[in-house]
Specification:
CATH topology of the largest domain: Thrombin, subunit H
Strand order of the largest sheet: 1-29-30-31-32-28-27-26
Distance between the termini: 32 Å
CATH architecture of the largest domain: Beta Barrel
Largest sheet: 8 strands, mixed
Length: 868
């Protein structure tokens, strides 16, 4: 996009001038208690401030604006603003955040030192009451039927990442869960399609303890219009064995009356990790959004969605929902069970949907469980480890991040590891540019500056210690290049540096472990989603597939560290769908003018250097809209960043190619721009890049060679170690990448039941000596080595029940085949030509292929037909 990146002021000192803005928030500053509808007087002191932006924060990463562009008198030394707390705000803890601007000079921010509290007033003057004793519930074990649902997805780096948490109700002894559509569903920003997601289910065993997250679930049904979903619980082998679940009955007859007692159960964010139970009354009913809703003064909040509203006899009368912004705040709203009964009856017996991420989540959940009792965290790739203090805790909430702290100490220090993937082997020169890129993508680079930067070495690992400032708040990090990753260790010593010694000791245990996993750069990309496109990168570029329909690919320049290219897909909007190229270029210029009205307060200006509404990229694409722009300081005229954007229009989406260059070096920018234009000669709006040299349909296929290699993995030794699989069914080869592997294999795999699968031996190198999947006291590796099945627990009264009864005929028929274990979470297996099976997971993907693959030359590879 044009003019995306804001400036980074790289300073080694924090000296200020007499015109620099100064601001100090006076109130609310923590500890105050307000109610919805109250008028709050926000006050501050100021110097050199002509405009302020005021917002409120309900969490560290949340910010909602109250006033975004409020002019104030620059001659005043104090300021104030009267804010009426809106009806839609939920009860909870909040901070005020205020930013002051001195136009063309700079900005400064401050926030409340501590939380203030907003309460919501109850109807009928009956206050909501919290319940912590099960005997006070209308059904004593009702809380055991309320689950926390953690929704995971694959992030841009293909890490399993936690997207959201919500609640659900177990409504059958077999483990059917009723929840909300919005709790379990992620939609693509580009086209609103449903993204792949997977669900960790946490069931409470005691009312005061964190629920046990030892379960997964599959989707049975979902309906966006009703905001309803049904899931089916599955146990994780080795972690859970529960078969009969505590459940709640549904009240199908709409018996709730105004004034009736109601109990709300769920997992709101403000309630912490344990279940939150509040008691109130039914305050009324309303028909809205095509449904009946029950209003209650029992407190609900974000995270409560999918939870239960119970009547006095312990039946579910409603499903809590926070899906609509006008149903938040003073009252809790629950979807009346009677309005979704017919939908539930039609869908409750559906077959649970296959989930390709399930085995990935199972492996990750077991890692989380193991870390509960471990002091050392070891990651296989990037190959790193770190050791915590014995009284601190690991929180491995997403594969891309690990936090270490003492949960019992809110004022203590913390450490967080972040794993940032690159498409090439990283070095020290990538570190500063990565921080600038991250802050630029967040849109806060203008508030960011380097305070200090120094080289460090820990356990022989070279890296940098970086101190940065964002809106006056100081952040500390160590950053190390590891293989094709940057490992960022963010840290804080706690209040008054109370944990400095402990934090430093933990950081000094950071190590890089030996790894035999090779890394190969990618230099071509093909987008199978709409808009379809493909290209070849030049020698100085490396391609990184991005798990997003909106931004499917990044291309990084390996020498010019401040240069990278994004390939983006954007919707055609109502405003732009009927525009010709000239109109669209004018529209872009208008957007830039609007941006400049805002960023001038930061002494910034976006300037279009040149443009062309009918730019020729190559012989196929000769009608692109080109805009070259710079960000510069208004006062000094210094160029801060440069960019060039090509927009290629289609009926439903635009393909936007953006070069971003975070430097003022014009000569280097021109060189990079020239290299980009050379790369774009291969850009094609189709499945294969132009001029790829790939085999055409007229190339001769060697049937004898193909037949010998059916079912084999092939390592393309002359082209960066690319991996191919020859489908035994049709003899065609399919490239296997980290991005497409599991979806590809699910398409090519044969379904197999457990009875037949368990008649094939497991390869000993496919399992771990650190894992006991069936919980029988024997490691998976020891069982596989002795010919036993690590998924079947050994029975002490009937020895040998888990011995593999190998079927030689079946094994021989399935050599070289991919198998889909339909009865166990759609796990994927590959049977090698020694007749041993290997499980294929996200964790072992590329390492597994390189162990099994045969090397092949380009000449021989081109004699095998290519699959779609």
């Amino acid at each position: 996009m044009v003019c995306v990146f804001f400036t980074a002021n790289i300073n080694s000192t924090s000296a200020t001038s007499s015109e620099d803005p100064v601001l100090d928030l006076i109130s609310p500053n923590g500890g105050e208690v307000y109610a919805v509808g109250d008028e709050v007087n926000i006050t501050w002191t100021q110097t050199n401030i002509d405009t302020v932006a005021i917002g409120y924060k309900s969490c560290d990463s949340c910010l909602d604006w109250i006033e975004f562009n409020l002019p104030v008198d620059i001659n005043n030394t104090t300021g104030s603003y009267k804010w009426t707390i809106p009806e839609h705000l939920s009860a909870g803890n909040y901070k005020i955040n205020i930013t002051g601007y001195h136009t063309n000079i700079g900005s400064v921010s401050d926030k409340s030192l501590a939380d203030f509290i907003i309460n919501t007033s109850g109807h009928l003057n009956i206050p909501s009451v919290s319940i912590t004793d099960p005997s006070e519930l209308p059904k004593e074990d009702a809380y055991k039927a309320i689950v926390k649902i953690k929704t995971f997805f694959l992030d841009r780096y293909y890490n399993l990442s936690l997207n959201s948490e919500g609640s659900g109700i177990i409504i059958s002894p077999e483990g059917l869960i009723l929840s909300n559509y919005h709790v379990i569903t992620l939609e693509e920003e580009l086209d609103s399609s449903i993204r792949d997601a997977v669900y960790q289910i946490c069931i409470p065993e005691n009312i005061s303890d964190e629920p046990n997250c030892a379960y997964t679930a599959k989707v049975v049904a979902r309906d966006k219009a009703l905001d309803m979903a049904i899931l089916k619980i599955e146990n994780i082998t080795g972690l859970s064995t529960l078969r009969n679940f505590s459940y709640l009955d549904l009240d199908r007859f709409n018996t709730a009356q105004v004034g009736d007692e109601v109990v709300a159960l769920g997992y709101p964010v403000i309630g912490g990790e344990t279940i939150t139970i509040t008691k109130g009354v039914v305050s009324g009913e309303v028909d809205k959004y095509g449904q009946q809703w029950i209003k209650t003064d029992a407190v609900t909040s974000f995270g409560s969605s999918g939870g239960a509203a119970l009547n006095a006899v312990g039946k579910v009368i409603g499903i809590t929902s926070q899906a609509h912004s006008d149903l938040l705040g003073t009252l809790g709203y629950a979807i009346n069970i009677s309005s979704i009964g017919d939908w539930f009856d039609r869908n409750k017996n559906n077959v649970p949907q296959t989930n390709t991420l399930l085995s990935h989540l199972v492996a990750f959940t077991k890692e989380q469980k193991n870390l509960k009792s471990a002091n050392i965290f070891v990651k296989s790739y990037p190959p790193v480890s770190i050791t915590k203090m014995t009284d601190w805790d690991f929180d491995y909430y997403s594969e891309g991040r690990l936090s270490i702290d003492k949960k019992s100490d809110d004022d203590g220090g913390f450490i967080e590891l972040e794993f940032v993937r690159y498409p090439y082997l990283t070095g020290l020169n990538d570190i500063v540019q990565e921080l600038k890129r991250q802050y630029a993508e967040l849109g806060i680079l203008s508030m960011f500056s380097f305070v200090d930067e120094k080289s460090v070495t820990i356990n022989g690992i070279s890296g940098k210690k970086i101190v940065t400032s964002v809106s006056g708040e100081i952040f500390y990090a160590y950053i190390f290049p590891v293989k094709n990753y940057l490992v960022i260790i963010n840290y804080d010593y706690g209040e008054n540096d109370k944990d400095k010694e402990a934090v430093d000791r933990v950081i000094n245990t950071f190590k890089i472990d030996a790894s035999t996993i090779a890394f190969n750069e990618e230099r071509q990309f093909s987008n199978s989603n709409s808009p379809k496109f493909s290209f070849l990168a030049g020698q100085n570029w490396a391609v990184m597939a991005n798990n997003s329909k909106s931004v499917p690919a990044y291309v990084f320049h390996k020498d010019s560290k401040g240069a990278f290219v994004t390939f983006q897909a954007a919707r055609v909007t109502e405003d732009t769908k009927n525009m010709n190229n000239d109109d669209f270029l004018d529209y872009t210029k208008q957007q830039v003018a609007e941006i400049n009205k805002i960023i001038i307060r930061l002494d910034l200006k976006c300037e279009i250097v040149k443009s062309n509404a009918y730019y020729k990229i190559n012989n196929e694409i000769n009608n692109a809209i080109m805009v070259e722009s710079v960000f510069k300081s208004v006062s000094s005229g210094k160029i801060i960043s440069q960019s060039i954007s090509y927009t290629i229009k289609s009926e439903e989406q635009y393909l936007v190619v953006d070069l971003n260059f975070l430097s003022d070096n014009q000569t280097e920018f021109n060189t990079v721009k020239s290299e980009l234009n050379s790369m774009l000669q291969s850009l094609s709006l189709g499945a294969m890049p132009l001029n790829t040299g790939a085999p055409s349909i007229n190339d001769v296929v060697d049937n004898e060679l193909t037949n010998r290699l059916r079912g084999k993995f092939l390592l393309q030794v002359q082209d960066r170690g690319r991996i191919w699989y020859v489908n035994p069914n049709n003899g065609r080869r399919y490239e296997v990448t980290f991005a497409n592997a599991l979806n590809l294999f699910e398409t090519l795999a044969l379904g197999i039941n457990n009875t037949n699968l368990y008649q094939i031996l497991i390869h000993i190198d496919s399992v771990s000596s650190e894992v006991d999947s069936d919980g029988d006291g024997f490691s998976d590796k020891s069982e596989a080595g002795a010919g036993y099945n690590p998924d079947i627990a050994s029975n002490s009264s009937r020895r040998g029940n888990d011995k593999v009864n190998m079927d030689t005929s079946l094994t021989n028929r399935l050599k070289g085949r991919l198998l889909l274990q339909v009865a166990d979470r759609s796990r994927i297996w590959y049977v090698d030509f020694d007749g041993k099976r290997w499980e294929v997971t996200w964790k072992n993907l590329m390492d597994l292929f390189r162990k099994l693959a045969l090397g092949i030359t380009d000449n021989d590879l081109n004699k095998i037909d290519m699959g779609d």
